[in-house]
Amino acid sequence: MSTLALAVRDSNTMLRRNLLHARRYPSLTLNLLLTPIMLLLLFVYVFGDTMSAGIGGGGGPDRSAYIAYLVPGLLLMTIGSTTIGTAVSVSNDMTEGIIARFRTMAIHRPSVLIGHVVGSVLQCVMSVILVGAVAVAIGFRSTDATVLEWIAAFGLLVLFALALTWIAVGMGLISPNAEAASNNAMPLIFLPLISSAFVPVDSMPGWFQPIAEYQPFTPAIETLRGLLLGTEIGHNGWLALAWSLGLAVLGYFWSTSKFNSDAK
Length: 264
What we know:
The protein is mainly α. It has helices spanning 3-24, 27-45, 48-55, 63-95, 98-103, 111-137, 147-174, 178-184, 187-193, 209-213, 217-229, 236-262.
């Protein structure tokens, strides 16, 4: 069997293993998924009128407009929260001895990480679809987006999920246990809270605006918002692409180097 065929076969096996674990133990994924759904319902039905009035510059509350503003950020936050489960899963594999067992077998070594990454991206896509369905059910609409813009939005979500997954894998590899992995990955949920997900950056205090602006979530949110709602994207598209590719490359080399060094 060729090296490529071996890699594909073993990666597919590891992918099925991780999806099977996710199906048998759905509590972790569901708990992480509930965070963006609860925030969506909280900000729409509890804070919606107040927040929309503030964003609208005193023009009166418009809850439907705030739903449209809020959803793109919550979709990307869903990706961040879902990948925390990946960090925990990787940490469990490293500490429970199964990786040591895999290393004694004639398998393609990178397939262990590839299975985690592909499985996590698939879970992120399914989680985004579920949160998106909840958003549509409570009033979110994207009537102006073209087919190409929908494809671009989906591509951005998948690329962002891939980038955060590789970072989460690295966090799981450096964590001594599952609890530490969950704590190490908390910035993946915390960063969206201090981005433009809930309010525009220019409405924040001046000293805080750079913190919200110069991070990976804000340009990704503004790009997704522009694709779905027809707002101006500007330079955010290039920044979102650069952040996603940069984090994916960084996470890949960090994870693979850590994984290979642990084998020595």
